[in-house]
Structure formats: C-alpha cells, structure tokens
Amino acid sequence: MRPSDAKLAAALHEAGIEDLAKLAEDGYYNEFFGPLDLPELALVHDLQKVGTKEALALRLRVINGDFDAGKEESEEWAKSADGQDAFRRLIERK
C-alpha cells in the first residue's frame, strides 16, 4: 500500500467509515494509480454522502490536501508506463 493510501485508510478507519477505508486500502482514491479521473472529488462526494460529523471533518481534510500523494508517489508514476505514455502524448501535441 502506498503512503497516501495508508494515511487515508487509517483516517477512515478511525472515523468508522469501513467501506471507504477498504477502497482507500485498495488504492481506489489514489490520484496517480487509482481508476478514477478525479479521485479527490469522488472522495469528497462519498464523504458528503456518509454525512457523519467524522466524515465531514475528513472531507475538509481532503479538500485541504491532507491526503495528497507525495513526491515519491509522483515520481513512481512518472517512471511508470502510464506516466511515460502521458508525457509522450503531451510532447506529441506541440
């Protein structure tokens, strides 16, 4: 599990939001490696739907960037096949 996923999953477990914690553990909300185009927005929406005091507090933390991936994860993505493909496509557009 990547560091940002672990941090988010721990906070979700602490808040008692087990279904979202499991998704976080699986990397679902990861901004580089997850399946979503806008994972932070999806998480904000999902926390709003949960609606508890703890979920809404976590929602604010997500909005403030507390669970954003760090430099190590961005570098890992940049070196990955997906990252290299994205860079190649950006360069080709010029």
What would you say about this model in short?
The chain is an all-alpha fold and 94 residues long. The protein has one domain. The protein has helices spanning 3-14, 18-25, 39-50, 53-63, 71-79, 81-93.
What order do the SSEs take from the amino end to the carboxyl end, as H and E? HHHHHH
The global form is elongated
Number of domains: 1
The quaternary structure here is single chain
Measured as a percent range, the helix fraction is 55-70%
- Sheet bearing the most strands, described? none
Structure overview:
The chain has helices spanning 3-14, 18-25, 39-50, 53-63, 71-79, 81-93. The protein has 94 residues and is mainly α. It has one domain. Helix 1 (3-14) packs antiparallel against helix 2 (18-25) and helix 3 (39-50) runs antiparallel to helix 4.
List strands and helices in order, with pairings.
Blueprint: H1 3-14, H2 18-25, H3 39-50, H4 53-63, H5 71-79, H6 81-93
Helix pairs in contact: 1-2, 3-4
Keywords:
94 residues; mainly alpha; 6 helices
